[in-house]
Amino acid sequence: MNKRLEILNEFLYYVFDSLLIPLLRSNFYVTESSVHRYKLFYFRHDIWRYVAEPAMAELKVTMFEEVKLDHARRILENRRLGFSQVRLLPKQISMRPITNLRRRAAPIGNKKMLGLSINSILGPVLGDTPGKLYFVKLDVKAAFDTIPQDAVLKLMQDVTTQDRYKLLKHVEIKAGHVGGVHKPTRRWQAVAIREHDKTPFLDRVESQLAPTKRHTIFVDNVMQRSEDRRKLLSLMTTHIEQNLVKLGKKYYRQKNGIPQGSVLSSTLCNYFYADLELQHLSFLNGQDCMLSRLIDDFLLVTTDVAQGAKVRQGDAHGAFPGYGVSVSPLRRW
């Protein structure tokens, strides 16, 4: 029986790997969409070229600048970072460029079960009506592509305050369910701390890791390394200012914004717009306002209509100089 199952698995692998996938790849460009995230779309290659080439041509003018082949090779030979690939993600009326930095390039040289009842929680809300609520939603247009490179690098110099950092690795084990079989999943995680921080691993798990993760086993791997702040900032500068993208046979450097597919992109964007909140939106810290943000999506809830109007008017008139912020009128309400 086991032999038959093995033969069946090999046959299915052959059908998918040698027949189905090559057939799809040779006839269609398969992609997800920025709007329909869990659906796949199949474009004939000629139709995809028709919709993608104008968008790619615009990117070469607005976001990238061409780098001569010899110069690109010299850059790649003298750094740890390779080059990235760009793909286009269809939106409703435009394309979103996604940078793939995961693809490897060929080398060039404690919570309780029981709590308050729902009525107990909602009682204060019903007992004291706060009045009319006003909502202002702002979605930054092409946030990753418009963040000024110099500004975000200067900000990160202020964020990194230690001369050296210690990177600690540990394993997180959770119960998993794969193919009808219960199998634990293991994930390697790394945490950066001050070099002279002597906090034991168990104390760090109790105070920092366990409160946000349930049903998880933490295993100290006793692996650590030390990193110099200047080297980290230099690596980040290279990553942002010298992001080489290969389009066809040519290399291009991203001259505006930060790589959207980078493992750092969401963190950099969070820090950058948190600084914007601190410098320009601190007037919203009153009792009558609540400003929330998920990366580049802002939502203001307030009982003061004047505050909401101030935020909208300030954005419309470019009141955030140095942040490259532009809000799409279709996404402002």
TrEMBL record:
Family annotation (InterPro entries): RT_dom, Telomerase_RBD, Telomerase_RT
GO molecular function, one term: telomeric DNA binding
Record-linked CDD domains: TERT
Cross-referenced Pfam families: Telomerase_RBD (PF12009)
A GO cellular component annotation in the UniProt record: telomerase catalytic core complex
Keyword annotations: Chromosome, Magnesium, Metal-binding, Nucleotidyltransferase, Nucleus, RNA-directed DNA polymerase, Telomere, Transferase
Function description: Telomerase is a ribonucleoprotein enzyme essential for the replication of chromosome termini in most eukaryotes. It elongates telomeres. It is a reverse transcriptase that adds simple sequence repeats to chromosome ends by copying a template sequence within the RNA component of the enzyme.
Protein's recorded name: Telomerase reverse transcriptase
Species this chain originates from: Verticillium alfalfae (strain VaMs.102 / ATCC MYA-4576 / FGSC 10136)
Lineage: Eukaryota, Fungi, Dikarya, Ascomycota, Pezizomycotina
